[in-house]
Amino acid sequence: MSCLIATTLADPVVVSVTDFGAKGDGRTDSSQAFVMAWTSACSSEVPATMYVPWKRFLISSPVEFQGPCNGTKIEVKIDGSIVAPDGAQSLGSSDSWIMFSHVEGLVINGGAFDGVGSSLWACKASQQSCPEGPTTLTIFGSNNVEIRRVTSINAKLYHIVVHSCENVTLEGVRIYAPKDSPNTDGVHVQNSVNVRILDTGIRTGDDCISIGVMHLACVTFEN
């Protein structure tokens, strides 16, 4: 006697930010649409992708994409650009513009983050009262993270911060800001274990890579 057992694998879930009203015109605030798309993808029981199409999307307020997610892997696939608001005071006193927190198995793949930092740099140069500025992309309290083929330009402050994480790989990342842009560190690593930075090009106005207080940390750099 024999039996046939059929198994069906659920198709991966793809959630586009445009499904939730994001407008890729570079002018309309898409912050809430991005958060709603993330919530949908993060709640999936099967591998999910949050997709950002080939357009420019304004995120005019600080956003936090929170975990843990229901699935074991979640990807943010970016074909287009994510743009910060202009102006020295545009993001207030926030220390992060875009943050992913407490996510297991996160992949951020492709795309560009434009911090539009020139107004804040000019404010600092003129010695006016202006905020310190936010980091463009913060990964906090997350494990098994991959950041691949991402471009970050003109951050208001740091470009990428990896804080309190384990097993993080940055590969094929490109980071640019003018040589006179203040405090625009490329990658800052803090309290993290097993961080690898591979095939990454950085040209900024401050440290290319900076390392804060570490506990049992191992950071690897490879060309």
From TrEMBL:
Stretch forming the signal peptide: none
Cell location: Secreted, Cell wall
GO terms, biological process: carbohydrate metabolic process; cell wall organization
GO MF, one example: polygalacturonase activity
Keywords recorded for this protein, A-Z: Cell wall, Cell wall biogenesis/degradation, Glycosidase, Hydrolase, Secreted
Family of the protein in this entry: Belongs to the glycosyl hydrolase 28 family.
Protein name: Polygalacturonase
Organism: Stephania japonica
